[in-house]
Amino acid sequence: MNLLAIETATEACSVALVHGENVVARTELAPRRHAERVLPMADELLAEAGISKHALDGIAVGRGPGAFTGVRLAVSLAQGMAMALDVPVVTISSLAALALEAPEDGAAILAVIDARMGEIYAASYRRDDNGGLIALDEERVCTAESLQLPQADAWHVVGTGWATYASALREKLGIDPRSADGARYPQARHVATLAVREFKAGNAHAPELALPVYLRDKVALTLAEQGR
């Protein structure tokens, strides 16, 4: 299988290529430069693997949640490439991709992205026995103070939400996390890992059915809200 994966939902601009049994990836922290960098990064990976884009069997994309412009860019690129190449698309939760940044030791994983405006994007997972994830709750956008979590004996926390709201999140966990890293971002290599499973399970879609997930429609505070 040859599969190109794109993830630009956060500050990290990330592209990965599955080529047979190999996975190669590029990632950069490039705020506001995703549109400039993502296609050249994809071309670099294809050249490194020695294949053309016409050899791709599908496109995988991190569908959000995350920054509106980043999510929209990734999904639009995935749709356009897939239509041009006549291949299907698999959409993967950016929170699920982020969760695979956590250590592999059986603890529950809280993936949490700083959503700005005093809120977070969050979801909880546990690894399965085959390198994938089991969702323990639903993706949502909320304040760190209102976050409700499932019961777990141990936790890993990954994502920028921890960097901003560590105190409130620690209180919600009820215990100190086994590990916590606020400098982790969703990565295309994890989008690719999860997408391969979905492709094999027959869960690829026509490009026009690949849709972003924003979790909220409001993108800015009003002047009154800013004043408060």
Task: Report on the architecture of this protein.
The chain is α/β, with parallel strands linked by helices. The strands form two sheets. Strands 6, 7, 8, 9, 10 and 11 form a six-stranded mixed beta sheet that branches. It is built from six helices and eleven strands. Strand 10 (155-158), helix 4 and strand 11 form a beta-alpha-beta unit. Helix content is 32%, strand content 27%. Residues 220-228 have low confidence and may be disordered.
Q: Brief description of this entry?
A:
The protein is of the alpha/beta class and 228 residues long. 32% of the residues lie in helices and 27% in strands.
SSE topology string: EEEHEHEHEEEEEHEHH
Strand content: 25-35%
Shape: globular
| Rg, Cα atoms, Å | 17 Å
Q: What structural class should be given to the helix and strand makeup?
A: alpha/beta
The count of strands amounts to 11
Helix content: 25-40%
Low-pLDDT segments: 220-228
Mean pLDDT: 94
Distance between the termini: 53 Å
* Number of helical segments with 4 or more residues: 6
